[in-house]
Amino acid sequence: QVQLVETGGGLVDSGGSLRLSCVASGNIASTYVMAWYRQTPANPREFVASITNIGGTKYADSVKGRFTISSDIPKDTTYLQMSSLNSEDTAVYFCHALALSDYGYKMEYWGKGTQVTVSS
Fold first, then answer.
1. In a 3-state reduction of DSSP, which class is residue 88?
2. Residue 88 phi/psi, 5° resolution?
């Protein structure tokens, strides 16, 4: 099992920056991809960014050049640095982990989310 706790959400002005953190605990050694997703009441959950355990990253087109995902392995923490925020970035942001069970099955875990609100 892997537990994920997100922090760092809040209210920010348009054009501002915010850094989200996701602290993982439990069977962390089994994780191989950490990611951020976001969701608004009107839209389904969407992919934002991901990072593999060897540092490979991917971004949604809507956040490329503005958001940066990174990991601090000793701290078991994944970050999402968000810059040039606009109202369309307003959402609940969720941390997500892909891991392998002891039997080699793919497992996925979600945090409870943190609210980001960008005021225009």
1. helix
2. -70, -10
The amino acid occupying position 87 is: S
pLDDT tens-digit profile, the chain (120 residues)? 899 999 999 999 999 999 999 999 998 888 899 999 999 999 999 999 999 999 999 999 999 999 999 999 888 999 999 999 999 999 999 999 999 888 888 999 999 999 999 998
* 3-state helix vs strand vs coil in the chain, percent to 5: 10, 60, 35
Q: Residue for token digits 């996925």?
A: 108
- CA dist 37 and 92 (Å) reads 8
CA 62, distance to chain mean position in Å, is 15
The Cα–Cα gap between 64 and 24 comes to 25
The Cα–Cα gap between 114 and 111 comes to: 9
Phi/psi of residue 75, nearest 5 degrees: -95, 0
Beta bridge partners of 72: 77
- 22/79 Cα distance (integer angstroms): 6
| Backbone φ, ψ for residue 84 (5° rounding) | 50, 50
